[in-house]
Specification:
It contains 5 helices and 11 strands; from the N terminus they run H-H-E-E-E-E-H-E-E-E-E-E-H-H-E-E. The chain is of the alpha+beta class and about 270 residues long. Strand 8 and strand 9 form a beta hairpin.
Amino acid sequence: MKQRSLGYPRSPASPLPWIALALSAGVTLGSGCKNESPAPTPPAPAAVAPALPTPPPAAAPTHAAAAAAKGLEWDDPPQWKKVPPSSAMRKASYEIPAAKGDKAPGELNVFILGGEIEPNIKRWVDEFSGFDPKSLVRHDRTVNDMTQAVVEVPNGNFSGGMGGKQASPNYGLLGAIVVTPSGAEYFFKLTGPSATVKAARDPFYKMLDGMRLEGGTPEKPGASPEKKSEAAPTVPAGHAVTAPVVPAGHAVAAPAVPAGHAPAAPAAKK
């Protein structure tokens, strides 16, 4: 028994097989385009850091800077005996020979410290009691362009700054603070029996006259303390210099000078 096929008869000239083939080729081409990767983007060139300017060569230290770093030099008085310092704080120490009638020698100790000058001067003076305030000497000197703040207590009761130590009567002080260009402060403190300190006064000032920076030249010797001093008025301990009282609304009048004349210098006392 023959089976009959159902459906529509296919015409030999039907375009359906060609259309299917064309669609198949289009799909194949389309899928090929989708699978193709885009060309890689070339990397951007690396950034080049700008060249830094070459630093200028370090300047050689100036003469003033080199001088400021130098220490202080002086000449040891031949009549004094240099001894090893008893503590690391002391830069130098000297034994001052006792004067006739004194049982104990004096001593000079040198320190490199700091701080305000006047409070240190006051600290030295406050180590003495029972002395005449009018005998206190305080003046400033200049040697080799370096300031020297000097103080003298001729005779008093010296406690040495130690609270529990019994004061030594009839003692004196020669003290100086020398300021170098670098700002370093050298403290020279000479104490001892009054007669011994008095005998050491001339060698002490000669030593101050020879102060200079390392490798420097001393000034000409022989100048008296007063010649190089910028003397400040002597003021008793615990007192301040008072200015003249001027009534309110008034100014201190300068002395009248005739026209064509210069003010006369005060006559020197003999």
